[in-house]
């Protein structure tokens, strides 16, 4: 089945810094979403981005489907950005979402 | 936007008992729902695909007799953990497909004593 790897696995930033999270996937996909999992476990949808670039405030994402990767950019990070970020892909031919390995982000005040 | 709910949000039970978790799509119909399990500090792992009106399909390594799934209507899927044991303690999340996207429930935290 499709493999989804995220990097880095852990990231510590000072408040105000910028960061880039990467998601690599091993096969073609129909859909891709980025999530932030809050401390209570709830998945907060950040972007639905099977291809192209989107921006929402301090966050933006780019997916290059032909090269099988997606990037999540966080600018001017805040302590509230701390948590785990997951990408999830829907592999072609199925409706199943496969989650990446996650990036655990900690933003220090 | 589309909303998926889960009930209960948390449950504690004794070893050997069965626990039922409900997943509902509140404002859309979902012919397909999915169940995931997440252990502490790990990613979400797909357990099974729930199809309305037919049997669920399970991922490799998931015991279908232990994790019973019923998708009785277009808005409700249930996961029953039968004869639960401490190793079944986990965070269970469902999702429902609608409008070409997937929407995730808030999760159910199961603790088996």
Write the layout of secondary structure elements.
The complex is a heterodimer of chains A (109) and B (113).
Chain A: E1 4-7, E2 10-14, E3 19-25, E4 29-37, E5 43-48, E6 52-56, E7 59-64, E8 69-74, E9 83-91, E10 97-99, E11 103-108
Parallel strand pairs in A: 2-11
Antiparallel strand pairs in A: 1-3, 3-8, 4-5, 4-9, 6-7, 7-8, 9-10, 9-11
Chain B: E1 4-7, E2 10-13, E3 19-25, E4 32-38, E5 44-51, E6 57-58, E7 67-73, E8 76-81, E9 90-98, E10 101-104, E11 108-112
Parallel strand pairs in B: 2-11
Antiparallel strand pairs in B: 1-3, 3-8, 4-5, 4-9, 5-6, 7-8, 9-10, 9-11
Explain the overall architecture.
The complex is a heterodimer of chains A (109) and B (113). Chain A has 109 residues and is mainly beta. Chain A has strands spanning 4-7, 10-14, 19-25, 29-37, 43-48, 52-56, 59-64, 69-74, 83-91, 97-99, 103-108. In chain A, strands 2, 4, 5, 9, 10 and 11 form a six-stranded mixed sheet that branches. Chain A has a five-stranded antiparallel sheet with strand order 1-3-8-7-6, with no helix packed on it. With 113 residues, chain B is mostly beta strands. In chain B, β5 and β6 form a beta hairpin. The mean pLDDT of chain B is 93. Chain A binds chain B through residues 31, 33, 35, 40-43, 45, 48, 86, 88, 90, 95-102, and chain B through 32, 34, 36, 38, 43-46, 49, 91, 93, 95, 97, 100-104, 106-107, 109.
Mean pLDDT of chain A: 95
> Percent helix among the residues of chain A?
under 10%
- How many helices of chain A in DSSP terms? 0
Structural class of chain B: mainly beta
Radius of gyration of chain B: 13 Å
- Separation of termini of chain B? 37 Å
